Amino acid sequence: MSGERFTLDTNILVYSLDRAAGDRRERAERIIEQARRSDCWLTLQSVSEFYVAVTRKRLVRRSEAAAQANDWLEMFSTVAPSANAIRAAFASADTGRASYWDALLIATAAEAGCTAMLTEDMVDGSILHGVRILNPFAGDAIPPAVLALLSED
Q1: Are 19 and 25 in contact (CB under 8 A)?
Q2: SS3 letters for 84-133?
Q3: Average pLDDT, the chain
Q4: pTM as predicted
Q5: Do the bridges between strand 116-118 and strand 6-8 make them parallel or antiparallel, or are there none, so unpaired?
Q6: What angle do CA 61, 66, 72 make, to 5 degrees?
Q7: If you ran DSSP here, which 8-state letter would residue 4 be given?
Q8: Which helix (H) or strand (E) covers residue 8, if one does?
Q9: What is the pLDDT of residue 151?
Q10: Is the distance from CB of 125 to CB of 119 less than 8 angstroms?
Q11: Cβ-based neighbours of 28, under 8 Å, separated by 6 or more
């Protein structure tokens, strides 16, 4: 295991249930399974956004979405946004570094000690609030930097 604490963005959670997502679904399922055995924390924001997204897109029934979200709440350590994380997100959004919601997710993860976030929504390799952004969907296979986070040795 790399020993590095990281978090998953909402899109990975959503892809894991999206039957139309093809390779992204397979990667998301693998990432989540391996993240369970790693130092991965989920933000309550990403779990909440997951529920909203999959029910709005009608990927699964509401009861199934809630059951999956509850499973993740049991499997992973979680963190809620603090007032300081909200202030940091305002500042990042104000300067145009990220959307408010992305900045809030990252600031919250940073407060939990995460040094990386897996997402396709921001520039791969960029850093915000001390959290490195890694796109697990870049290229034909899961990138080595992502695999290093998920490694079991």
Answers
A1: yes
A2: HHHHHHHHHHHHCCCCHHHHHHHHHHHHCCCCEEECCCCCCCCEECCEEE
A3: 94
A4: 0.92
A5: parallel
A6: 130
A7: -
A8: strand 6-8
A9: 80
A10: no
A11: 12, 13, 14, 15, 16, 21, 136
C-alpha to C-alpha distances, 140 to 21, 29, 34, 75, 118, nearest whole angstrom = 15, 16, 19, 29, 16
User: Taking the CA atoms of the chain, what radius of gyration do you get in angstroms?
Assistant: 15
State the DSSP code for 38: T
Which pair of tokens denotes residue 70? 């509850």
- What would the mean pLDDT of 34-50 be, rounded to a whole number? 96
Closest to 4 measured CA to CA, from 126, 116, 146, 135 = 116
Per-domain residue ranges of the chain? 6-150
Q: Which helix (H) or strand (E) holds 74?
A: helix 62-75
CATH H-level, domain 6-150: superfamily: 5'-nuclease (3.40.50.1010)
For 136, the token pair is 């697990």
**Exposed/middle/buried for 111, CB within 10 Å: 0-12, 13-18, 19+?**
middle
Provide the CA 131 distance to its chain's centre, in angstroms: 12
Flag whether pLDDT at 69 surpasses 70.
yes
Pairing relationship of beta strands 77-79 and 131-134 according to DSSP bridges: unpaired
